[in-house]
Amino acid sequence: MARKSKNRSRNPYIVVFWEGESEQQYFMFIKDKFHEKTNLKIHNKKGTFDIAKKSVSAKGVYKDDVDYIDEIWIVFDTEVDLRPKWQENWEIIKLLRKKCKNAKVRLLMTKGCIEYFFLLHYEKTAPMISTTVDKEKVLNILADDKHCPGYKKGDRITIWKIAENYITAIKNGEWCLNRVKDELATASNEDDKTKILYFTDSTFTNVHEVLGELEQLIN
User: Fold this and answer.
1) Helices 166-178 and 208-217 meet at what angle, rounded to 10?
2) Cα-flanking dihedrals φ and ψ of residue 59, to 5°?
3) What pLDDT, in 10s, does the model give residues 20-66?
């Protein structure tokens, strides 16, 4: 989890960049849940890598905070279409590390659609997610009577209801990530692990990892 300032004790300062309104609403819940132990900033504009880059630039909203940011979270779904942008995105990560010297930059990724991560708030499951039809199936399962009836993307009420089960998501997320342990075994460091997850065809999420760390702060 985020480091504390060398000069004073304070809650970790974490900035979250998000791909869609569903991710935004989920982390608004997390901000509310852990507000006593974290200074969690949900960026006010939709976007991930490019928006993060602009935010720490000389004219960016966090230009005066770069020495105080402990972690930067970039939340998005991994897609085949994103793979050609790996090097471009990695250069942005390196720039963020350079600008925010005390910050840990983390890619919080879910295969295909955030609804898969949401589904882990209810059960252990790992369906194939590679096509639009696959994503729609996951969304329809999430919105059925056994999970979160009435769910729709970006809806605050249903997403906050889902998020209340975050403890189950931590457990099921660990189970899910353990399914790709053979792929991750080839990684020599965290950066290698991040790259493997960015490119894998396997169904996975790593969003739960930060939730587990936040939970430790309040226990």
Assistant:
1) 130
2) -110, 10
3) 999 999 999 999 999 999 999 999 999 999 999 999 999 999 999 99
